[in-house]
Amino acid sequence: MARALSPRRAAEVRAAVQMAVGAAAAFYLATALGLPHPYWSVISAIVVIQTSVGGGVVAVARDRAVGTIVGALVGGAVAFVRPEGVSAMVGALALSTAGLAFFAAGRPWLKIAPVTAAIVIAGGAGPEGPASLALDRVMEILTGSGVGVIAILLLFPRHARQTFRLQAREAAGKAAALLALVMRGDAADAGDLARSHADMKKRLDALGQAATNVIDLPGSQKETADRAALVRAFWRVRSDIVILGRGFQASGALDRLEPWIHAATAAVVRLEALSRGEAGEPLGDPDPVLALGGGESDGDLARGAAAIGLAHMHRDLDDLGERFRDLRLV
User: Is the pTM of this model over 0.85?
Assistant: First the structure.
């Protein structure tokens, strides 16, 4: 059924099936193991599977496992030594979660540690005791994280590749829109430009994560290298857009930059073609006159920026197109 849908809808169907199977399998396995709170396994499986949209599945599973173990150890130790009483409970919760949150800053593998510690400390006063609660919590998280990773690797294993393909094409479309906006040279677009640049950076970060999430079989080192090279090519194209913007956005420069605007329009067309999964025509080397800033030596900074940006754009965009072709994205 997924094959009969559009690429985006097919990816969404695969993600939905992965989520349903992973959640059900995590609950079933946690119940079969006699874990008291199987919903924690389900939550962990869902969190891990969700990361398949943006990459880093194995890293997220590892971080949740390590953070849970650290939080369980700290929470169990504090629960054993804290005095009885509500005030002591509140103090223990505040100190342990504050300490773990302090060390978790900048350390993703400790992100879940304060949550686990709080559960063990607050729940340790019950009949289960802190040691049993900590062990159960670790087992539940490990079970759910393991199920999530297995669901990603075994169920629709090409889903990560499809996600990378979609994100690469979307990034090309956003780059085309950003370059077209830059070429307008309208000061009123400053707010939209800032947001578009920020959105482009986020998309390229997500694309880099998606590239690392594709699991290659042995012997696929070249494809792995090509994906990394494609992401680097995108970052260079974005830098070229920034350089071109310094020329096109200069006050009163558009009248002097008409030949560069016409040449940059070809780059927009090429990016739009890549976003549709089409190779498009290579740009080749730009006109030498344009690459030299129009052959004038009057110190026109706008023409200089446009010339440098255009020369780099032709080179980097042709390289990006080759990467798309190598990875069969067009």
Answer: no
